Amino acid sequence: MPEIKVTPLGAGQDVGRSCILVSIGGKNIMLDCGMHMGFNDDRRFPDFSYITQQGRLTEFLDCVIISHFHLDHCGALPYMSEMVGYDGPIYMTHPTKAICPILLEDFRKITVDKKGETNFFTSQMIKDCMKKVVPLNLHQTVQVDDELEIKAYYAGHVLGAAMVQIKVGSESVVYTVSISLINRTGAAWIDKCRPDILISESTYATTIRDSKRCRERDFLKKVHETVERGGKGADEHEGPHLLLHGAHRESQSLLQTLHHLDQSEDQKNLCTEKHV
Ligand SMILES: [Zn+2]
């Protein structure tokens, strides 16, 4: 059996600039093209020189697949396609295609317009990059060429997040990224399969946390208390405390939690305790 090669160009043992190069059956696929939010120099981008020292990205790569819109997974995309140079297909789901350019432009404004940093992509580059995107439907098998086949499945995590199965001949790789099995918008699932390699992501693998149920109850209680104070903090001189950071995974999760708990027994119990 020919070998399958997996090369992290970013992330690996780190959180940020997720970018994994998979070579399978003579095909080269880039999985994600993220930004590292902890650096403000070239280290914020994946190490594309691993490929470019041998030639152009377009000649080397058969396709790029973006799993979801978080910047640590898509933030380096316009840099890669417009500044390093890549003209091949970039696959992502429809929701990711809709949200990704908004987050990229937002981050560009902060980085270039506000902080004055250089060596960064422009608004036009984001637009040109998005023209190379081919939208993916979930559960639809896409033939990238005669031999390379990809199929996306919902990964939970955030809207439009996809895990992907890549097949060349009898060999296959599954890239799960950040899957969620408890997401209220739907849990991750995939058809029964036996991939040769499974690539996953594990941000909190060694962290032991309180039960989700307890954290949700504490959170809801704090929200109720804050709303009763008219949105102010416990100290009357403090400003509003109910602020959610847009487009962030935790914000989406908190909003889902609020919506769910609002109709659950937890909420009823809390109200009963309060008014008796
Ligand atoms: Zn994410």
From TrEMBL:
<dbReference type="InterPro" id="IPR001279">
    <property type="entry name" value="Metallo-B-lactamas"/>
</dbReference>
<dbReference type="Pfam" id="PF16661">
    <property type="entry name" value="Lactamase_B_6"/>
</dbReference>
<dbReference type="InterPro" id="IPR036866">
    <property type="entry name" value="RibonucZ/Hydroxyglut_hydro"/>
</dbReference>
<dbReference type="GO" id="GO:0016180">
    <property type="term" value="P:snRNA processing"/>
</dbReference>
<keyword id="KW-0539">Nucleus</keyword>
<dbReference type="GO" id="GO:0016787">
    <property type="term" value="F:hydrolase activity"/>
</dbReference>
<dbReference type="InterPro" id="IPR041897">
    <property type="entry name" value="INTS11-like_MBL-fold"/>
</dbReference>
<dbReference type="InterPro" id="IPR050698">
    <property type="entry name" value="MBL"/>
</dbReference>
<protein>
    <recommendedName>
        <fullName>Cleavage and polyadenylation-specific factor 3-like protein</fullName>
    </recommendedName>
</protein>
<keyword id="KW-0378">Hydrolase</keyword>
<feature type="domain" description="Metallo-beta-lactamase">
    <location>
        <begin position="16"/>
        <end position="231"/>
    </location>
</feature>
<dbReference type="GO" id="GO:0004521">
    <property type="term" value="F:RNA endonuclease activity"/>
</dbReference>
<comment type="similarity">
    <text>Belongs to the metallo-beta-lactamase superfamily. RNA-metabolizing metallo-beta-lactamase-like family. INTS11 subfamily.</text>
</comment>
<dbReference type="GO" id="GO:0005634">
    <property type="term" value="C:nucleus"/>
</dbReference>
